């Protein structure tokens, strides 16, 4: 069984890369090129399902120094992330086929190539066996997604790409690397261990400094004030925005934060640190401030981007609340937000391609023109808001329970107020679309069928996650969180 796990972990890492030469060779044959991407994505999901059935195993890829290696390891938190990312890869590819063809995008083969490389890096990050491995794949995610952010090649795209790269690399260099070096100095290793790697001899002040360095160094988690890269990256095509928000980049960030809290520090240690209340309140501030900024955005993708900054705050808040319920709620919110937010971005792209509309003020009556799109949007929005029968209700429930367990009653208020703000800035969109008259002369016209199918699948998954939310929660709790 261990041998099977080793082979499957290697396959999960390598399989997306095997698609790259096929995509390049078929770059002038769109049907074949996209079939390779779809089939590889489906195969990767099957590999992750097989890993789920095994439950344990690991492999050392490269030994750099004694007690320092690039290694992969199978553990429940990584399995959750790996299953979500691998499921959404072929769905996003299906959506991208309709979007890229409908918008007549240039360099479509390059898009699919870097998408595959990014997914490979995500698999490496999900199954990292230690902090050094996580850092390596974390940076590969950054570099492999940069060409996607700058895909259009315009000055605006290049400017957004510079902001994207400079902030993510800057936070890694200034904060993440020193945090990793400090961890090695105090603990003597970077291996992930339930309960953390630090001994009792390490002072709370030193641990507090390290925790702050990690919180800001993992810039992909978009904790304020290091969040500007995310709105800047919205210059990318909508399938890339969906990748950034739901499949790869931001989820890599918040997954890394949760992993560091659980397996480098340990929940019990984080709960006792003097810096923890500051980080809890900072995450709470990010939730509310980003929601308030989102309400002021008329550009559809900008509103969704600031919504993501707010929702990522939920996940980092759960990690810093440092209770079993809160951390499990954080992991659950990674899943719920992934499906809800990718649905919203799919709808944004469908509107742009079919009707060239990108401003919310232009959406009056569009629900009568694109009913499937706006029904899907409504389901995704209700899930993010946290209303039954959509999956998002469970992650918010356990985050609130975690706030109570940790004694942060004010965070219960923050989460409640944020949900109300979610209603205001998200449900305004379907309200405009369905309750106002359709534009004069408008006829029924949805996006291409592949894009509509993709958003329908992800919207229905928001309902399925409500039904199976407790099963996912119990699986997360099977991990040794404390």
UniProtKB/TrEMBL annotation:
Residues 128-421 form the NADH:quinone oxidoreductase/Mrp antiporter transmembrane domain. InterPro entries: CPA3_Na-H_Antiporter_D, ND/Mrp_TM. It comes from the Bacteria. It holds the Pfam family Proton_antipo_M. Keywords: Cell membrane, Membrane, Transmembrane, Transmembrane helix. It is found in: Cell membrane; Membrane. One of its GO terms (cellular component) is plasma membrane. This is Multicomponent Na+:H+ antiporter subunit D. It comes from Litorivivens lipolytica. The lineage of its organism: Bacteria, Pseudomonadati, Pseudomonadota, Gammaproteobacteria, Litorivivens.
